[in-house]
Amino acid sequence: MTAEGFFSRWITKIDRTFISGPDGPLEALMEWNPQVTPRHVALVCHPHPLFGGTMHNKVVYRIARGMRRAGAVALRFNYRGVNLSEGSYDGGVGEAEDARAALEYLRSRYPELPFSLAGFSFGSRIILKLGSEISGPSRLIAVGYPANLDGSGDLGRTNVPRYFIQSTHDEFGPVAAMEAYFKTLDGPKQLIWVEAEDHFFANALDKLEEAVFGVAKSS
């Protein structure tokens, strides 16, 4: 690879926008490499809004960058009530509808391209819920899935290929709980472990991004 080719993969075009959400406008960032013809699009959902989760979370940023490197147009957004997004927290129900609205916006911009859903922590629950209710996603990428939390065992029941990327020391989705949950899922699935210090992939963000990149470029 030439030096020009190496550096071109890091070039990013960012479109800051607001999406019409069910409870008011949602703040969003759409990003892509302008030197690469998009192969697919990806919606990326952030962690819990009541615990500091935003679209600027470092794990969310790395997920989006991994997707972008694989040729995707990535859309990050803030749920209702987060930063400049209007509305207030709705226990995950309204946040799933926010994700649905963001996905509809993304697909309206690129209707001819396949699409994926990705999310971190609370966001992984959102994308597994939404992904089981809609038709057409190429893949669901659940990062840092909180398998220990109530209700997590009921999500992910779909035939859409699911990829779980998990820290080996995730306090909310530890190895035993994650493997037990994973065994209950039918259909295409893959569990990818990343050696990291905690739920937020401390000292392993590069490895996390490479895992996302590997999944996104595989199909």
Sum this structure up briefly.
By secondary structure, the chain is of the alpha/beta class. It contains six helices and eight strands. The protein starts with a helix and ends with a helix.
- What's the number of helices? 6
Portion in helices: 25-40%
CATH class equals Alpha Beta
Major sheet summary line: 8 strands, mixed
Query: Would you tell me the structural class of the helices and strands?
Result: alpha/beta
| Averaged pLDDT | 95
Report the portion of residues in β strands. 15-25%
Q: Tell me the domain tally.
A: 1
Which consecutive residue ranges, at least 5 long each, have pLDDT under 50? 1-8
CATH superfamily membership:
Alpha/Beta hydrolase fold, catalytic domain
Question: Would you count the extended β strands for me?
Answer: 8
Order of helical and strand elements: HEEEHEHEHEEHEH
Bulk shape: globular
Order of strands side by side in the largest beta sheet?
A: 1-2-4-3-5-6-7-8
Radius of gyration based on Cα positions = 16 Å
Q: Specify the CATH architecture.
A: 3-Layer(aba) Sandwich
Find the CATH topology: Rossmann fold
Task: Give a written overview of the molecule.
- This protein is of the alpha/beta class and 219 residues long.
- It has a single domain, classed as Rossmann fold (3-Layer(aba) Sandwich).
- The chain is 31% helix and 24% strand.
- It contains six helices and eight strands, in the order αβββαβαβαββαβα.
- The protein has an eight-stranded mixed beta sheet with strand order 1-2-4-3-5-6-7-8, with helices on both faces.
- Strand 3, helix 2 (58-69) and strand 4 form a beta-alpha-beta unit.
- Helix 2 (58-69) runs parallel beside helix 6 (205-217) and helix 3 packs across helix 4.
- The chain is globular.
- Mean pLDDT is 95; it is low at 1-8.
